[in-house]
Amino acid sequence: xxxxxxxxxxxxxxxxxxxxxxxxxxxxxxxxxxxxxxxxxxxxxxxxxxxxxxxxxxxxxxxxxxxxxxxxxxxxxxxxxxxxxxxxxxxxxxxxxxxxxxxxxxxxxxxxxxxxxxxxxxxxxxxxxxxxxxxxxxxxxxxxxxxxxxxxxxxxxxxxxxxxxxxxxxxxxxxxxxxxxxxxxxxxxxxxxxxxxxxxxxxxxxxxxxxxxxxxxxxxxxxxxxxxxxxxxxxxxxxxxxxxxxxxxxxxxxxxxxxxxxxxxxxxxxxxxxxxxxxxxxxxxxxxxxxxxxxxxxxxxxxxxxxxxxxxxxxxxxxxxxxxxxxxxxxxxxxxxxxxxxxxxxxxxxxxxxxxxxxxxxxxxxxxxxxxxxxxxxxxxxxxxxxxxxxxxxxxxxxxxxxxxxxxxxxxxxxxxxxxxxxxxxxxxxxxxxxxxxxxxxxxxxxxxxxxxxxxxxxxxxxxxxxxxxxxxxxxxxxxxxxx
Length: 484
Ligand code: SAH
Ligand code: SF4
Ligand code: F3S
What we know:
Layout: H1 18-41, E1 46-51, H2 55-70, E2 74-75, E3 83-88, H3 93-112, E4 117-122, H4 128-137, E5 143-145, H5 153-162, E6 167-169, E7 190-194, E8 196-197, H6 208-212, E9 216-217, H7 220-232, E10 237-241, H8 262-270, E11 277-281, H9 290-298, E12 305-307, H10 315-321, H11 327-340, E13 345-352, H12 359-372, E14 376-381, H13 399-422, E15 428-436, E16 443-448, E17 453-457, E18 466-474, E19 478-483
Parallel strand pairs: 1-2, 1-3, 3-4, 4-5, 5-6, 7-10, 10-11, 12-13, 13-14, 17-19
Antiparallel strand pairs: 8-9, 15-16, 15-18, 16-17, 18-19
Helix pairs in contact: 1-5, 8-9, 11-12, 12-13
The chain binds S-adenosyl-L-homocysteine (SAH), iron/sulfur cluster (SF4) and FE3-S4 cluster.
S-adenosyl-L-homocysteine binds next to strand 13.
């Protein structure tokens, strides 16, 4: 639950973007409607935002929730609510299936609550086939919109409240970036900040460029202004978000004063008083510059964590994935990071079962894991996404074969991660306290700059502050420690 956090950009005076002002007026109209329905029913109306996918979607959901709250809804954790919105992901098929399962269950709530409205948005809705499926088999859905017009949610909400028909508003693309939308953070002390939207890389397996459109960078001025607002509101840690943060600013014309590089941007963000940690996600290995490494080295505020998606350790597979680096180039970069920044944790993403991949190709991936000694790795089984080039490759790998290779890889990944984690035992590190431990409420949970989790005894008042903790016992992916 998001409590005791201010909704940023809820006041007209804080807003410079015309479109955002327009949306605020729709929020007011929606609120009149919600308030009157609430009086009629003699109870408060509730809203639930269900989020799938990456940090970008999580950030979008914080905007959806802010709008719903400003429109008079109370936040509900349960989908048995008066307004439910699913913010979807379609990066792998299992993400699609999970949404559809949840949506199906939600219809049961609607049968009992005639005032209930159900909305679905996000990446999956940028695929025509998914929208057609909802139109045909999920007739109870009230509102469908996509990623490019999410800034119009207040307007769409208002329209939906007045209508009994299914409302569908999907845009193919947009070049618009709307600033200053209201936002209600999930955490008081940390926040994602979009620095760019979309992706131009077209890795052959990936649907993201099709559902999120081309790269659009926000102006440095807008990013800094947002970070300053967040810092003034108590945020200690920001994560700069983009599908490939290394290409930040490439879409600005030469000579445009906005045209600064990602390292220059992150340096500017580090100057903001009150911000103690700056993370970023995701850099693409193909254009990870020395300038960025130097910047990280110089700036203790930049988190000691680099997420560097490998995808495969076989050069031919990488070529067919359109990743634009070889096994050797990737390893060279890792060695350079390890040498220049020995305290940085390197994590990665790996796909197993890409079309044409053999057991010996997976051996190359395992070789990279052994050499790179990743601090953690997310391993995925290749999922065929309609519309991507790889979906048309003839040599799709049967599931039984994939499973065996996947398990082999996972074993090595877990071993290396554990070894890397154990190296920290006995050290005392700065920890940003994130909350009360989910399993034992006498403990607090926090994160090191390198993203390692640690649990330790402490007062809940410390949530949001940085404390020093000794890393006493390694339990694989987390530590038990003590405040010093
Ligand atoms: N822009 C980031 C991450 C995007 S999606 C990057 O370039 O790394 C997050 C991860 O999902 C990817 O790194 C990849 O490992 C995985 N992924 C993307 N498409 C996939 C697919 N079709 N099947 C399986 N995993 C996929
Ligand atoms: Fe997908 Fe590749 Fe873009 Fe990442 S860089 S979002 S994997 S196309
Ligand atoms: Fe999923 Fe869209 Fe993110 S497809 S991974 S939610 S950009």
